[in-house]
Design goal:
heterodimer, A: 226 residues, mainly alpha, MetI-like fold, 10 helices, 81% helix, 0% strand, elongated, B: alpha/beta, CBS-domain, 2 domains, 6-stranded mixed sheet, 4-stranded antiparallel sheet, 15 helices, 36% helix
Chain lengths: 226, 371
């Protein structure tokens, strides 16, 4: 109970909510790195996944690459790039991108691959060209899986963006790193609670996003299969 | 007119899908490609819209080699219906039907108006326009598939096993619908099926394919059933082809008996007189509008009090009727075989009884047409 009381006290200290190392600024930094990492990852992984899914070319390469990237220790990537590029935003975002690309890529690729071949046959048979088949059939039908990949990636990125603190660019990881250095358990816990809350909010946001992006016909189809 | 000139499809592994097809499909008619699996019927169909390219020979539509045209443009001018409809799950019924008009660059408003016309044409309710494919039954989905294929008013319609994924009752309904549509639209229809009954029912001409991608026989349904060219065709069309052929003879030449059709207000006494005079073991009871109520056996009448009205008796079910003007001898024979009285009930377009015919009398009629 002591821990809980101290945690409440930590959160209710007005000093915690202002200044350059206050919770609002740290959260903003955290969100900023996460968003940036996710955005860059999506800009790479969604088009590549659509292309490999549509053509069927590079499916094996995609899966291997994704598995390889998945096995990379994010913190290792971070320090590797710090060595190469120095301290700053670039290594943080690069490490997050490396983390986020695999789930988005694999889900997008699979989302397009699992479109019923009969539907593609119908689309081509009616006179759609390759690009039209991709944009008017495969992409809309793949959206639920693509959003799913984005959500997985986003939650991982939010949880992992704590590493930004190691290279001195802030974020919620600050509380965990500093708390550890000062043997301040409450501070570490406070930072962790904030990261968890942010991850929960992220999940909720993506639930909303999927309602917005998934075509109503697919939504009611999924509901009918439930 | 669609012409296959030595069109063949060989795969690199040595498989022959189509061995070299020479065939002319007439305009404005329904031509059915029928055969067992692996006989090349679907491959041949798909050569018409370049979904399959022949390895040798060519396919001409109205004299033009299909390979001289851009595939996408060619396909927009040819309707295409596939098994299980292949509707887009993320689009409404209306937008599925509007697919080709939209590809052709018609505005959304015009495309949707056209979709509404087609829904009416294929017998879909306007209220279904905004529904999604999975909310429809299999039969309704296939109607949408046909409407989608017809949306740009193509002169040619290719149908690849369009009705094979629905149950037999719905299938018959869809076949009737196709016949009705075709009587109205007169498209050049090529339909692939493995069901010889379907082929006989909807085809003006039937091409029977044999395994190995060869054409075994190309004929009218009647010629096919009466004169199969070889053992393969004969066994493929089945040993009941004699009965099936009766579908080509109308039932309106049958002589129906009216004397054993009795009113539900007639008495048992009157009925006994009638059946005894006629020498018939069964009488059919009808209501005041002449709609059938059921059969009553002569033996049964003898056990009932003579003053009772026939409408008060428990009658034997009359089974299904045949429409004297629209149905064939096959339907009449079927009705008679299934009837507990061994007699078929002939009705007019409103279901009113015109008379009954026994199996024996049907036999005579069949004898006279099968020569």
């Amino acid at each position: 109970m002591d821990v809980l009381n101290e945690l409440v006290a930590w959160f209710s200290d007005p000093g915690q909510w202002s200044g350059p190392d206050g919770i609002p600024v740290r959260t903003a930094e955290h969100v900023q790195y996460s968003l940036l990492g996710l955005l860059v990852a999506a800009l790479i992984a969604v088009p590549v996944g659509l292309l490999t899914g549509h053509t069927g070319v590079g499916g094996f390469a995609t899966a291997s690459l994704a598995n390889f990237a998945r096995a990379l220790p994010t913190i290792g990537v971070l320090f590797l790039i710090v060595l190469a590029a120095g301290i700053g935003l670039v290594p943080v975002v690069t490490a997050l991108v490396a983390l986020a690309v695999p789930p988005i890529l694999v889900n997008t690729h699979e989302g397009v691959r699992q479109v019923d071949p009969a539907l593609k046959d119908a689309a081509l048979g009616m006179g759609m060209r390759g690009g039209q088949v991709l944009l008017r059939l495969e992409l809309p039908v793949a959206v639920p899986l693509v959003v799913n990949g984005l959500r997985t990636a986003a939650v991982q990125v939010v949880a992992t963006a704590t590493i930004a603190a190691y290279v001195g660019v802030g974020g919620l990881g600050r509380y965990i790193v500093d708390g550890q250095a000062r043997q301040d358990l409450t501070m570490m816990l406070g930072g962790s609670v904030l990261v968890v809350l942010l991850a929960v909010v992220t999940t909720l946001l993506f639930a909303g996003l999927s309602r917005l992006l998934v075509a109503p016909g697919l939504r009611s189809l999924a509901a009918a299969h439930r | 007119m669609i012409t296959f000139e030595g069109a063949a499809k060989h795969y690199p592994d040595g498989t022959v899908a189509v061995a070299g097809l020479d065939l002319t499909v007439e305009s404005g008619r329904t031509t059915v490609f029928v055969g067992p699996s692996g006989s090349g019927k679907t491959t041949s169909l798909r050569m018409v819209n370049r979904m399959v390219e022949p390895t040798s020979g060519k396919v001409l539509v109205d004299g033009r080699d299909v390979r001289s045209q851009n595939p996408a443009q060619l396909r927009r001018s040819i309707g295409y219906v596939i098994q299980q409809a292949g509707l887009f799950p993320h689009r409404t019924v209306r937008d599925n039907i509007a697919t080709v008009p939209l590809l052709l660059g018609r505005g959304r408003g015009r495309a949707r108006a056209r979709a509404a016309e087609l829904m009416d044409l294929v017998g879909l309710e306007p209220s279904q326009a905004k529904r999604y494919p999975h909310q429809l039954s299999g039969g309704q989905q296939q109607r949408v598939g046909v409407a989608r294929a017809l949306a740009a008013d193509p002169p040619v319609l290719l149908m690849d096993e369009p009705f094979s994924a629905v149950d037999p009752v719905v299938r018959t309904g869809l076949q009737d619908e196709l016949l009705r549509l075709q009587a109205e639209l007169r498209k050049t229809v090529v339909l692939v099926t493995h069901d010889i009954d379907e082929a006989v029912r909807v085809g003006d001409r039937i091409a029977v394919f044999r395994p190995g991608g060869e054409l075994a026989q190309y004929d009218t349904p009647e010629r096919l059933l009466t004169h199969p060219v070889d053992d393969f065709v004969e066994s493929f069309i089945g040993y009941d082809r004699g009965v099936r052929r009766l579908a080509f003879f109308p039932a309106n030449h049958l002589s129906l008996r009216e004397d054993v059709v009795l009113d539900d207000q007639d008495t048992v006494e009157r009925a006994l007189n009638t059946v005894d005079t006629a020498g018939e073991p069964w009488a059919l009871v009808v209501d005041q509008r002449r709609l059938p109520l059921g059969w009553v056996a002569a033996d049964r009448l003898r056990r009932e009090p003579s003053g009772v009205e026939l409408g008060r008796l428990d009658l034997t079910a009359y089974g299904h009727t045949f429409d004297v003007e629209r149905d064939s001898l096959r339907a009449a024979l079927d009705a008679a075989v299934l009837s507990p009285a061994g007699r078929a009930v002939g009705v007019d377009g409103d279901g009113r009884v015109l008379g009954v015919v026994s199996q024996a009398d049907l036999g005579g009629a069949i004898w006279s047409v099968s020569g």
